[in-house]
Amino acid sequence: MKTIIEPFRIKSVEPITMTTPQEREQHLTEAGFNLFLLRARHVLIDLLTDSGTGAMSAEQWAGIMRGDESYAGADSFFRFEKTLRDITGFKNILPTHQGRASERILFQLVGGEGKVVPNNTHFDTTLANIEHSGALAVNLPIPEGMDPKNRHPFKGNMDIQALEALIAEVGADNIPVVMLTITNNSGGGQPVSLENIRAVRAVCQKHGLPFYLDACRFAENAWFIKMREEGQRDRPVREIVREIFDLSDGATISAKKDGMVNMGGVLLMRDDNLFQEATNLLILTEGYITYGGLAGRDLEAMAQGFEEILREDYLQYRIRSTAYLGERLLDMGVQIIEPPGGHAIYVDAAAFCPHIPAEQFPGQAVVCGLYREGGIRACEIGSVMFGQHETPSMELVRLAIPRRVYTQSHIDYVLEVFEALFARSDSLRGMRIIKEPPALRHFTARFAEI
User: Fold this and answer.
1) Which of 137, 181, 262, 283 is most buried per CB count within 10 Å?
2) Do residues 317 and 190 share a domain?
3) 45 and 188, same structural domain?
4) 190 and 284 inside one domain
5) Residue 351 φ/ψ, nearest 5 degrees
6) Where a domain ends, among 308, 334, 358?
7) Residue 167: pLDDT over 90
8) Inside any domain, residue 9
9) According to the model, what pLDDT value does residue 362 have?
10) Do the beta carbons of residue 399 and residue 378 sit within 8 Å?
11) Is the pLDDT of residue 390 over 80?
């Protein structure tokens, strides 16, 4: 059939609050033109992030009721551990309260002054945790990944020649780990090919470097491999996922993405000695090793969510429904990062409002415009998010699609709002920052319109 339907039925709903343009103007002003600072009840369609914003299944809610809240050795932990071992093949598994906790533990152990951590593209919390340790985070995307119109099927890939050059420049002894983010979030939600994962692994083996994944969206990346990479079409997604993890020495995972839960994370490590250090740090800062800052019910929901994300009918629906939004935006003349990504559509804000220079944050102007026009909350990924560290190569607006939350009619409404805003895009005004924290400023900075 031509129509790919949602592979689930809706069992529970929550109301959406409708707002007037006048109310939205007041809310936006009170929030300092930062959509992170809006009250959620004042948002009509929330595309700020897909992290922890999905809808859980009936089986996940059943797991919530089964949760064993024992402090140590809870049955819920052992179900969680078995599920992760079956999927990833890793023996050493720690639960954490979310992905950035896994990142903090890892880089507190391996980071530090003089260290350099390469990645295809670091996302915001990864970069912040690396730099908080005193290390330097370096992005090595392929050139095609920097061109919004390029239709390369794996624009999330790491530049292998650039990786080799970096190792030669700084020395392998100064690189504690090589990371690869799948899918490449800051690079437009673009996937990484299995060929590229193997190539990064080969470079790491050659130089004796540990290879770690930022595997928040490992299943979505595996689906793209299955659909786009030669020789992979007939392989089950679960098999592709297992090979991806088999190629790595460790991984940080936010279960709030492909784990399909509202809170949770995972840290995987092959090195037994490093794992023991991570265990000691987890006990000090997160909680005991069988709950890691979570309730037993959270572990149950994670275990179920990691199974559900591997359902291929769900992944087909997920990727196709995201592409629907991207293709319709292209049809109306709105430039996005092509081809459409997995968890989000990334609008080229510099092309959307070319009259606003990068130093006046065109992405922030667009997200404010979307909220004013129709109550939509989106996320700037450009000079606001990364400008404290470097000059970003692209000014983007991310429309992240929460899992199993919105229907096609919601997305059609988003498209109508975009069409109206695009027609008057020349009226959008640049922004300036009037207050910002020293790190991760996009979360709490306040702006004024120019």
Assistant:
1) 181
2) no
3) no
4) yes
5) -80, -30
6) 308
7) yes
8) no
9) 95
10) yes
11) no
Are the beta carbons of 48 and 35 closer than 8 angstroms?
Answer: yes
Which structural domain, as residue segments, surrounds residue 418? 21-50+312-449
Is the per-residue pLDDT at 149 higher than 80? yes
CA–CA distances in Å: residue 206 to residues 25, 195, 351: 57, 16, 42
Strands 431-435 and 446-449: antiparallel
Which residue, among 188, 54, 65, 172, has the nearest Cα to 123 in the 3D structure?
A: 188
Distance CA 105, CA 93 (A): 13
Q: Cα torsion at 325, 51, 342, 4 (round to 10°)?
A: -60
What is the token pair recorded at 103? Answer: 């990142």
Mean pLDDT of 299-308: 97
Q: CA–CA separation, 369 vs 373, rounded Å?
A: 6
pLDDT band at 388 (very low <50, low <70, confident <90, very high): low
> Residues 283, 327: one domain?
no
Structure tokens at 171: 């020395």
Mind spelling out the 3-state secondary structure of 64-126? HHHCCCCCCCCHHHHHHHHHHHHHHCCCEEEEECCHHHHHHHHHHHHCCCCCEEEECCCCHHH
CA distance 287 to 264: 13
In this prediction, residues 242-264 reach a mean pLDDT of 96
pLDDT of amino acid 438: 85
Q: Could you tell me the pTM of the whole model? A: 0.92
Q: Which amino acid is at 422?
A: F
Q: Cα–Cα distance between 409 and 131 in angstroms, integer?
A: 42
Q: Hey, is 44 helix, strand or coil?
A: coil
